[in-house]
Amino acid sequence: MKIYELGPAPSARRVSIFLAEKGIxxxxxxxxxxxxxxxxxxxxxxxLNGQIPVLExxxxxxxxxxxxxxxxxxxxxxxxxxxxxxxxxxxxxxxMWQRLVELRGLLVAMQAFRNISGIYQDRENCIAEWGEExxxxxxxxxPTLDKQLAVTPYIAGNNFSIADITTVILCDFIQNLEIQxxxxxxxxxxxxxHVSERPSIKA
Amino acid sequence: MKIYELGPAPSARRVSIFLAEKGIxxxxxxxxxxxxxxxxxxxxxxxLNGQIPVLExxxxxxxxxxxxxxxxxxxxxxxxxxxxxxxxxxxxxxxMWQRLVELRGLLVAMQAFRNISGIYQDRENCIAEWGEExxxxxxxxxPTLDKQLAVTPYIAGNNFSIADITTVILCDFIQNLEIQxxxxxxxxxxxxxHVSERPSIKA
Lengths: 203, 203
Fold this sequence. Notes:
The structure is a homodimer. Helices cover 53% and strands 7% of the residues of chain A. Chain A is built from 8 helices and 4 strands, in the order βαβαββαααααα. Chains A, B: Keywords: Transferase.
């Protein structure tokens, strides 16, 4: 079993934090994204979306998409406490927040960053105006997280979940967009300081 | 228990097909999206993303995001066969395909449609150039589905899953973008004709 990744990339870090929370160690192989190693036919045969991370099982089966990789480990290595939720309502609430943070947060932040910076303009059309619009929508979304954290200790409720991992990744990533978790977001700020102390996130 | 929805909207239809597959009937309440009923404070208090569908439980707890609603029913009303997969690998493969079809298909199609048509320009900035770019990326993604369906009977493998439901919704929605599942996509075409015969999808 092996994970192909670029360690500091947001989606690779999501898997790393998830595995650290579960105490699972997996062999890693570095892929040079900026150099275009993920554009090779060999890599594309492993990764349906052409992206890292990719989990390769011992029989050669490959799984891409970071959340799908996390779900594999959650199911194949069950522990008493699941980061995807532990009853029907909790699982639905984790899924809801996971999607909210991803679809209105992380993906929007990625579109903002890629379209404003043009970091991958050698391989995609960048439309700066959409980047700026995305950055604005992201700024409008972030207070939703602060409001939630005023009433619950973690993003999806009373327990730390994969939605918290996605939110940590978001909070770190938005620094690339010159957006800060400042004093106008006291609950998000407090939560961020608190979860940053977890060994999985410190690592 | 009640679902707030606009029946023909893609995300409401996903939940309807899912419930029909599971044989669950739930009370529905129509929400007038074009008229802006979802913009009211009353609705926003129920729906964190301001969108339909929203599931309201008998104790007043609400869940938005269509996949989260499906997951609630999958967990709260378990059947022998889950549309989210039935072992660790299958669950990971369903999650992977569900995400691929959603993140590279349905969401891209929505961004294309909203930005090209300007249907919600009374409530969002539309950037036609991003709409056209999204439409092009969607056209480049669709053959991935055809290629998969050349080797597996359903999107995520041997069994019908929520990833097939999302793909049906995508195939129907792209007609708004004048994209057809034509003879250049024989496997996707065959799969579409086959799954369209399911009572849940015919309804």
